Amino acid sequence: MTEGPTGQSPEPARIDPIRAGLLCRCPNCGQGPLYAGFLRVVDRCEACGFDYSRLNTGDGAAIFIMQIAGGIVVFGALYAMIAWNPPIWLLLLITLPLVAGLSIGLMRPGKGVMIALQMRSSPPGGGGPRSGGGVAGGTLGQTPLHHASHGPRPPMEEE
Questions:
Q1: Which of 54, 71, 79, 114 allows an S-S link to 61, with CB 3.0 to 4.6 Å?
Q2: Do 39 and 24 touch, CB atoms closer than 8 A?
Q3: Distance (Å, rounded) from C-alpha 17 to C-alpha 128?
Q4: SS3 of the chain
């Protein structure tokens, strides 16, 4: 970034986080790479310094990608079976690599979009699942849920 006339760096240009996620770039600035490996998210953006350690998409992207790739291939295979009735070995020879290729090819952009959506919906000061954010002692003054494995339920306090 170039410095402005006052010697301070200008604000990063507002970018579409979904587009940046699809391009596997930082959804905050659109410049730095999002991944250090195939699916390993960098700890901090090289360009803007955004901290990714508080974000965690888990397996959300994988679930969506498997459903999308599986739906495309399964409906394509059903159409081929009805229209041309190829032998099953030929159908498997075509569809198995196709579903693997679609799944692997869509995984990075899909996870990038999930990270961008999580960034868009998380509070600016943190609060992501790995940050320990929120109010100490519970969520906004609510008592935590009780589970039977924790022993007998504690007595309720009166206000």
A1: 114
A2: no
A3: 17
A4: CCCCCCCCCCCCCCCCHHHHHHCCECCCCCCCECECCCCCECCECCCCCCECCCCCCCCHHHHHHHHHHHHHHHHHHHHHHHHCCCCHHHHHHHHHHHHHHHHHHHHHHHHHHHHHHHHHHCCCCCCCCCCCCCCCCCCCCCCCCCCHHHCCCCCCCCC
The C-alpha atoms of residue 17 and residue 6 are separated, in whole angstroms, by 29
Phi, psi of 44 (to 5 degrees): -140, 145
Q: How far is CA 152 from the centre of its chain?
A: 38
Q: What is the pLDDT of residues 98-153, one digit of tens each?
A: 999 999 999 999 999 999 988 888 776 554 444 444 444 444 445 555 566 666 77
- C-alpha 90/C-alpha 134 separation (Å) is 55
Half-sphere exposure at residue 151, Cβ-oriented, CA atoms within 13 angstroms? 2
pLDDT digits (tens, 9 = 90+) for 31-85: 899 999 998 999 999 999 988 888 888 888 899 999 999 999 999 999 999 999 9
Contact 77, 91 (CB under 8 A): yes
Q: What is the model's pTM?
A: 0.67
